[in-house]
Amino acid sequence: MLGLMQDQPLLISSVLEHALQAHPQSQIASRTGEESTHHCSYADIGRRAKQLANALTTLGVQPGDRIATLAWNGYRHMEMYFGVSGMGAVLHTINPRLFPEQIEFIANHAEDQYLFFDLSFATLVEQLAPRMKSVKAFIALTDRSRMPVIGVPNLLCYEELIQEQSEQFIWPILDERVASSLCYTSGTTGNPKGVLYSHRSSILHSLALCTQDGFGLSSADSALLVVPMFHVNAWGMPYAAAMCGAKLVLPGAQLDGQSLYQLMDDEGVTLALGVPTVWMALQQFVEAHALNPAMDLQLNRVVIGGAAAPRTVVETFERRFDARVLHAWGMTEMSPLGTVCHLLPKHRDATLEERLDLQASQGRSLFGVSMKIIDTTGAELPRDGKASGHLLVKGPWIASQYYRAEGGPILDDAGWFDTGDIASIDPDNYLHITDRAKDVIKSGGEWISSIDLENAAMGHAAVAEAAVIGIPHPKWQERPLLVVVLKPGKIASKEELLSFLEARVAKWWLPDNVVFVEALPHTATGKLQKIKLREQFQDYYTALSGSPKKHIQS
Ligand code: ADP
């Protein structure tokens, strides 16, 4: 017997329509680089998203066509999130920090029909335009007075494109399973692969973000998206914010500590989301200028994800900002949210130290994400917080295959997706990511967690950032090497750092050596680029039996 409830597809356009009805005056603040902070409302976004949908229709855009963006977080990008997907086309957000060859590959692979870009990417577009074969026109996200002078023949102006269009547009009733947006993974190995989100997956994922055990997003929030709209739909926040009427604060290209601090202060930010490297820079700015964020700001939650949240970063937010950290884990293939770290009633009396230990965990899975860990034979491991194995996930906002089936099947026979992470799960369902399978250090038949070692090293007052990599070793297969960036003006010797670690990790985990560098390499999404480090130092321990390489100073 079927239920007798209304059958309405879950569509991104319905989120916008709800925003227009329920909270049209909630704000979107953005820094576009064109003027001081631009403010508009969901009503403005809705009106202009409809104009955009009409403009795209005039340009001949068909359902399913890919419309690309090379853009920072800003209100015009937000209009595209709703206008493009709402009309049935697919918003393809390209990460501008990728190598130009990768961008070219991605745009051609996706067969993008139009490309919308922010002014800061004008030169990049000029360079790539002749090689983007399917793109019919390039649209600068600006007005006529600021149009870039570049050698691109089919160049259009966004404001001109939409200004003559009607503000009325009837959103099509789509099958909720059709594609809404496309995002390529950074492709640390091989070519980038496209993850194709659907209206249904995006809506279900956004509902989960709004729950209290998700990000607890509500109309009372002013949410700063440091996480870029060109990567995994800014963790789904543009949809979730429109759903509940949260104010959105979009920082544009200025992601340095000072700019973010100012924006948080100006826009009454209560919730901020980003990767650890961004927060390290903000905290260093606060430290260097002896600021008092707990007094200045209204920040009460910070979501840290994309890489493990270092304990010191969590502690600084708690102590200096009086803000609670929500440590979250996920990946592009998971829309991205899988787990969020909240405490349970039994932790109510935990001391700050105990709480910080708990927050090192990536947290508990939300409804919609099933997870399990398996050993190398495929047997499921116990959820006892001790056994650690390959982490598999399943759920309605997790990819079933890559765009154009690139790389072949990605699910096992029972529909599980291998995340590529090594993890343990405890009896309370807390996930602890040990490492990426490719980053875990295999020493004498045992595993050493590079994440835990990095976390411990970053607890030292002189350390700005730390990376630990497994380096081939003649006796132990691999041994950890600690690569450190010191804070400006601070000093620490190798011996001091090793004895600091000795008190915090098992003795056999101790790195065999420490290397000091000026800066660490990061990926396009702000994560440590360990592949590069491993290449740089691959024969470090084998060379030590002879003489260390000249470029290595230890
Ligand atoms: P890309 O695939 O482009 O590098 P993703 O955002 O998809 O970017 O990366 C997902 C991976 O990032 C996860 O599989 C995991 O290894 C790592 N990751 C994400 N969040 C965390 C976290 N909180 N702690 C540890 N690792 C994390």
| Domains, number | 3
Taking pLDDT < 50 over at least 5 consecutive residues as the criterion, the unreliable ranges are: 546-554
| Mean pLDDT score | 94
Q: Which shape, going by the Cα principal axes?
A: globular
Query: What composes the largest sheet?
Result: 13 strands, mixed
GO molecular function: ligase activity
Family: Belongs to the ATP-dependent AMP-binding enzyme family.
Domain AMP-dependent synthetase/ligase: 17-403
Enzyme class: ligase
Identify the notable features of this structure and list them briefly.
fatty acid metabolism; single chain; Luciferase, domain 3; Rossmann fold; alpha/beta; 554 residues; GMP Synthetase, Chain A, domain 3; binds adenosine-5'-diphosphate; disordered C terminus; 13-stranded mixed beta sheet; seven-stranded mixed beta sheet
Write the layout of secondary structure elements.
Layout: H1 12-22, E1 27-30, E2 38-41, H2 42-58, E3 66-70, H3 75-86, E4 90-93, H4 100-110, E5 114-117, H5 122-128, E6 137-140, E7 155-157, H6 158-163, E8 179-184, E9 194-198, H7 199-210, E10 222-225, H8 232-235, H9 237-244, E11 247-250, H10 257-266, E12 271-274, H11 276-288, H12 293-296, E13 301-304, H13 311-320, E14 324-330, E15 337-340, H14 352-359, E16 363-365, E17 370-374, E18 389-394, E19 417-425, E20 430-436, E21 441-443, E22 446-448, H15 450-457, E23 463-473, E24 477-486, H16 494-502, E25 513-516, H17 530-537, H18 540-544
Helix pairs in contact: 1-3, 1-9, 2-3, 7-9, 10-11
The site of adenosine-5'-diphosphate has 21 residues, from strand 14, strand 19 and strand 20.
